[in-house]
Amino acid sequence: MKKILATTFLCICSSISYAAQFPLTVKAENGTIILQKKPERIIVLEFGLLDELKLLGIKPVGVGKSDSSEGQDPVYLQEFLKDIPGVGTRDEPSLEAIAKLKPDLILGEVSFISKLGPQLNKIAPTVLLNGILGDTEVQKKNLQILSEITDRESRVSAIVKNHDQIRNNAIAMAQKSPQKKVLIGYITPSGVFRALSSNAIATPILKDLNKINLIQEKSSQHRVEVTVEGIINMNPDQIAILLTDGDLSPYKKLQENPLWKDVRAFKGNQIYFLDRNVWAKTHGIEAMQIKYQEAIESGFLAGIPHNKILMN
Fold first, then answer.
1. Cβ pair 103, 41 in contact under 8 A
2. What's the rounded Cα separation, in Å, for the pair 127 and 21?
3. How confident is the model at residue 308 (pLDDT cuts 50, 70, 90)?
4. Which string of b and e fits 46-80 if b means at least 16 CB within 10 Å?
5. Comparing 24-151 with 178-298, is the CATH topology the same?
6. Spatial CA neighbour of 77 closest among 91, 95, 63, 67
7. What is the CATH number of domain 24-151?
8. pLDDT digits (tens, 9 = 90+) for 92-110
9. Residue 11: exposure state from Cβ atoms within 10 A (0-12, 13-18, ≥19)
10. How far, in Å, CA of 126 to CA of 171, rounded?
């Protein structure tokens, strides 16, 4: 008997448990995929899906890595990743490296590698999911699909409960503070500010934190370049700067612009430093939990002046 995975997230908090039945029909973003048996050799080409496999206790045999411009892989995944072979980057994987690992399932982000789907399917069944927006319900749906594929459905309820507790705590804290208009983004080595767009993965998290992303436009690259003059005109209450591997040198380069001292958020000590790896690159459930926690601990959520945070 085949079991069909729904494309909308169903209630996953039931105490009823059952083993997955194969062949298994998976309705993914790249169509209907039939898995003849439970996969044992999984390759993952997206950090959010890797995040959720980690929560389910499943270790893949190969992973797509960060590209050279993004810095290192997310710190919270590094211990898990340390002995897993890389197969190129997440959006430009090596078909040869993938084939050598003899996978029986390939997982990826549909917006990254949909064009490679036919080639990947020749190597192993390929399931492409949509998790790049970082929406909580999308991530829960992905978790449910992955749990059924790997026969780990019994773990889902506890994972979701823990996530919801962290998220609801952050939302409750955020409602105690006035709504803020913010810019969030990273700075290039040359000192250019790249603000995350309205369709970036951080935007729904900002909404939970009672903050409005001043960048209302969408971008295929999930970012738009903003001049210092543009920042002054937007007049954000707060600015969150995403650091690549903790490197402050791009921010120091931006500060060389004499107009930076006129930015209201700078004058009011409302500039915060967050981790680019989780705010702009990783989309899974654990990554979202880290975003909420980092927003609290940095003072960004409550609007605590950053100099006070740095002195603690």
1. yes
2. 18
3. low
4. bbbbbbbbbbbebebbbbbbbeeebbebbebbeeb
5. yes
6. 63
7. 3.40.50.1980
8. 999 999 999 999 999 999 9
9. exposed
10. 36
What are the structure tokens assigned to 19, written together? 């083993």
What whole-number distance in Å separates Cα of residue 80 and Cα of residue 171? 29
- pTM equals 0.87
Query: Which of 262, 259, 263, 255 minimizes the C-alpha distance to 236?
Result: 263
Domain boundaries, the chain: 24-151, 178-298
Q: Quote the tokens at residue 176.
A: 């105690």
What is the identity of the amino acid at 227?
Answer: T
Confidence of residue 184 (pLDDT cuts 50, 70, 90): very high
Closest to 132 (Cα-Cα) out of 77, 68, 200, 66 = 200
User: Tokens in use for 213?
Assistant: 């992303």
**Two structure tokens written together for 245:** 């591997």
For residue 38, give the nearest of 55, 10, 58 by alpha carbon: 58
Short-list 152, 184, 141, CA closest to 280: 184
Residue of 11, 12, 298, 305 lying closest to 170 (CA atoms): 298
- Tokens 């990783």 — which residue? 282
- Extract the tokens encoding 196: 């995350």
Are the beta carbons of 229 and 197 closer than 8 angstroms?
Answer: no
What is 178-298's CATH number? 3.40.50.1980
List the structure tokens of 14: 């039931």
Q: What are the tokens at 22?
A: 């194969």
- Pick from 133, 231, 239: nearest CA to 180: 239
